[in-house]
Design goal:
CATH superfamily of chain A: GTP cyclohydrolase I, C-terminal domain/NADPH-dependent 7-cyano-7-deazaguanine reductase, N-terminal domain
Strand order of the largest sheet of chain A: 2-3-5-6
Radius of gyration of chain A: 14 Å
Largest interface: A-B, 20 and 16 residues
CATH class of chain A: Alpha Beta
Strand content of chain A: 35-45%
Largest sheet of chain A: 4 strands, antiparallel
Oligomer: homodecamer
CATH topology of chain A: GTP Cyclohydrolase I, domain 2
Number of domains of chain A: 1
Shape of chain A: elongated
Chain lengths: 118, 118, 118, 118, 118, 118, 118, 118, 118, 118
């Protein structure tokens, strides 16, 4: 599991805890650094989840995603780290995180990781 | 269940009650207020349902969706409230409500809630 | 079942009756009248079917769809009527009719009805 | 000229007053009421201008556009009112306002008004 | 000039008669009959005009366009007739009418006629 | 000038000869043979013209375009031939013919020829 | 089964016969004649198959599809004939042929026929 | 199995080996030669895989795909060769390779090959 | 004029100095901070120029654009600063810089500044 | 002027030398090497010209564009070289060459060079 502090993520109680419903959140403004070259990477992060007891507070999620801005991360790793952090904070029934990274060297990379079952 | 008055929703008898068929209604003109800041939120609301004894009268549905214009609602909550109100009024075999909210703070949110089975 | 005369629909023998294959026909030029206001409604009608003994002759289908031009019909009803008429005339193994109606009052409506199993 | 109070519009000094450059601002979240029926209208408002001594502060522009939410306005009129108000506040070299209104009764309306020369 | 009665077209005073501004109106729901075969034709009619003393009332324009529903007209002719009728009623500074007709026999036809100068 | 028989092209009197208006006709179903290899070529032919005394009858235009089906023509040549034939038959004020040919050997070719001034 | 000569279709050995993989081939340049009117029809033909012992040589497939150019065929029939001919020649594990025909009389037709199981 | 040297492919340990997650890599810049004519072919190669013990290092993958630039390969063969080479190097739980080749002779070809189960 | 150090911008001699030709460079990965809130802003920067004695070296341009990552800038200002810096370094015949900023508070902003004449 | 041998370019006489008409040719399959790194670059080359005495033979143009495959060229230079070579061979009235290069380091580059006047 990730060791990054997740103190930025705030949660609020799920207003409809008895129903299995899906929340999809998309942020096209994710940026981190390449751990090899130090150059900026850019991605669209999509988070889909079926809430358990809590839903994520959107402003804190925005701050959480911004916290990667000056950190170095590989594509495959950072997508899984975001999934781990959000699962720890939200205890969802199901969650999927998709990291769609901008082209580098003529190659487009997308990483999709899941927790639980839909 | 929601406590909003649903008196605006009028129903008419299903003209083909013996067949399982799907009605999909999309309104790109939903607006409510943010309960935190009081600022307007905008969304496209999509309603898919397999009618039971009744179908919804479209003009009354339009008025029902307009009734949120001056109310404060969180994204996850209002999508489920619309589902609850329509299920109460229509007794459908199946219903799905999708709220696709305009970007706020660089984040797009979509909430999908269902009742019954397709 | 519908009581509209279906004499316009001509059928021809299925040239490959032993194979389950799909025919999809789309007409973006359907128009009828609103039974409440008398104003014109417009729709795209899509018909998908797995033929049984017969296939529909396309010119007669065009005339059949034109025959609604001066009639008043609700969206949910007319989609099912078209399905009933075509099932009566063609005896298909499976048929789906989709009526995608133009926006009215800021609301888009699509009705999907099926006969048999795919 | 319009008599609506324009106190919401705040201006800041143009940081490059010696250069003729273009600023384009688009808000897809404009809503007002129909003065005939009282029903909500929706539009995308686009503002293009070559600044004079001032540029508009974006948050105050957002509040200005929100101030129409509960007012009744005809399409042709409100587009010209927005132009008049912004010209009064900003004294631009050139300004164009485009109001692209959602479909009503099967008809889409766009109004384009200009001040000065490009 | 056309001899069709234009009594359906209602006008209202131009609220900003001193400014040259453009109004664009698009109706994708125009239908008439082919004068040769009697079969329905479909078109999108776009009207752009710089108002003179009057603007067109939208509901009366909708009724005016519907009045062609049972009449036979050639593509080139009906586009010019609409231009003539609107120029007679509105006395605009400039007007353009575009009729974009649905494909017939594998051929798409668009007719563009203008009055005055932009 | 071309020596192909143009007897297929029928003309009808221009119903609005006093106005300069534009007619645009698009046929995505043009096919001829490559004069080098005998293999089929495919193109979309677009014809724009300001009519003089006559307009083209659409069915005869369709037959005219079909008449190239079994003939060998180079891209640059056939586009000019169509322009020459239509100018001869219609005496337009202005005409433009665009031949947009399907990709061959990884290369897309479009030829645009004009007669008169717009 | 079809009686058209299939001598144009050449096959080559499947280079990876032990793996179930899919080949999809799309030709937007199919043309035949309408058996009723003699007028040209146009279609996009898509062929998907899981090869058995052989794969189709592409140039011979191109010639095979061209061989329909002067023949009269109904939409439903010709799609099945192409499937039959290719199954005879290739002995695939699975094959699907889709014929997507250009609009005629305002109606779009698509025929999908399959052989074997995916 | 392929006999091409795969020494260009470098692997790095999977940072989340306990989770089944999907990596999708797309390169629109693949080019090889036609083994018949020696002329260049172009394709978009898409690789989707669920990593096993290793993930592919992206720069080495880019070099690997470039290594085909001067080699002659049939479409069906080269897609399977890429799959074989990557499976050998990465030992994934699942892998799919899609080769979408540019149009040749009016025909588009796409080859999809898989290893393991999703 | 801007006082930011422009040492990152490297230039190379224009290989065709006698011809007026246009170079267009687009970077969808520009990010800076909002000078009011400190929150990240994102933009696509497009630079079009007719070279004078020099052209810009692309890697140094990339580094130059990255240098704004931790700085606070208003939209209108930063677009003009980039134009000033590039004009200083390159002495172009003509240059245009377009900053297309991501939506904030439901408002999209685009700034276009030019130097010289096209 | 360029010193590359242009012997691949074959010309044929312009079949309509008295008319100013435009030929547009687009090849999305251009590839060369980066002169700095030796890595492949990819581009779409578009050539528009008004023919003088000659038009280009398309197969020889294809071979000419392929001849850059193993050469190192900068974006700005190679676009001008292609223009120079084609002007030398064809003596056109007007010619424009556009090189639209694939993204490198998050930056898209397009170079547009012209000869003569349109």
């Amino acid at each position: 599991m990730s060791t990054r502090p997740t103190k930025q993520l705030e949660i609020v109680p799920n207003p409809h805890p008895d129903r299995k419903y899906m929340v999809e959140i998309e942020s096209p403004e994710f940026t981190a650094l390449c751990p090899k070259t130090g150059q900026p990477d850019f991605a669209t992060i999509t988070i889909k989840y079926i809430p358990g007891p809590s839903i994520v507070e959107l402003k804190s999620l925005k701050l959480y995603l911004w916290s990667f801005r000056d950190e170095g991360h590989f594509h495959e790793d950072v997508t899984n780290i975001i999934l781990n952090d959000l699962v720890s904070a939200l205890k969802p029934r199901y969650m999927q995180v998709i990291g769609k990274f901008n082209v580098r060297g003529g190659i487009y990379t997308t990483v999709t990781a899941e927790y639980g079952e839909q």
